[in-house]
Amino acid sequence: MFRAGYFDPLVSRPRFQYRPPNFDAPPLSGAPDARFEPAPADGVLPDGFFSTSNLPTYLKVGGAWRRPRLPRMDCVVLQHPSGDLVTTEPRKVTRGALVAMGTAEDGSTGIFVHTEGFLGGRHSANEFRFMQTEVSRERPVDYAVLAQLLGEEKARGGTIVWVIGPALVHARAREDLIWFIENGYAGALLGGNAVAVHDLEAAIFGTTLGMSSSGEGVEGGHALHMRAINAIRRAGSIAAAVRSGEVKSGIMHALVTHQVPFVLAGSIRDDGPLPEVLSDTLAAQDAMRDVTTRATFAIFVATALHAIAVGNMLPAFVDAATPDGVRPLTTICVDQTEFVVNKLRDRGTHQAYGVVTNAQDFMHVLRFYVERWEQARTPAPLAR
Description:
Layout: E1 35-38, E2 57-61, E3 64-66, E4 76-79, E5 85-88, E6 98-101, E7 111-113, H1 143-155, E8 160-164, H2 167-170, H3 174-182, E9 188-192, H4 193-205, H5 224-235, H6 238-244, H7 251-257, E10 262-265, H8 281-292, E11 297-301, H9 304-313, E12 317-319, E13 326-328, E14 330-335, H10 338-346, E15 352-356, H11 359-377
Parallel strand pairs: 8-9, 8-11, 9-10, 11-14, 14-15
Antiparallel strand pairs: 1-6, 2-3, 2-7, 4-5, 4-6, 12-13
Helix pairs in contact: 1-11, 3-11, 4-5, 5-6, 9-10
């Protein structure tokens, strides 16, 4: 065990501090108001609409620069009758809704995307940039930085969202995630049918994909995940199986017990699926969107498709009680291959930390450093 005070607080660390635009200086001071046109039909946008990114974006309306609510990439900005500006998925646009127009992002049409807001004109080694290949398994990872960022987010009462794949369960990182949930480091969890199925298989039968904790196959193991699904469907839901005692441990047990919301998005290949799985893709997207609008910190572990999907929903920033009203939405992406981490970079997820390693090592080491960070914050008992 480490004694309190052994782990010195970091004096310096990579930060993405926001520097707002200077709207009082040219050319932004002389920019025109943004232009809006009505949508010609439900789910159809007028030609020349503005397509959003995940970066801080400002529209000039009535002579004042404003940021739209609910930011995310690949959407449009609507001006509601109340004057409110809201980022909205194109499929939700109704006929006659006023859509922001323009393809320029430099303020010349009343729309400004602040691409350098978190960098101050500089580039960080950890920053996610478009079409770069700086992620490598040979690059060192400062887990002390990640632990401190995570600990501070919990301390400020933020919503930490975990996005995980079934490899986390198979890699024996399950107990570490349970620890994070039980200790208040999880505000929500996003995943698919498989991660819940194999966690529940482990809770009921002690196997994942029919393998014991030692990695050896058990007789009839190939069918155990199907038997786990059947047990949950018989109970009526995951929550009901936890309440009845059918499920006594595991990630899903911890989520239900600690009332942490989760979204399980279905896919075409799902077995079962479990009762809580949302098989309607748009319904799943809406449920995930409800979580991402509240997210202030995100951790992606061993899930390519869900990481990229959620990364597309997350803005690069969150509203905060700072002089500029903005702070970065820290994101950690973990995978054992550079491909997945670089893919997320190429999709435009900024202010993120890429970690190329397996789920088991990452979860073990991160937990170790977070526990160490907590101990450093706990005053040592006075000697008697």
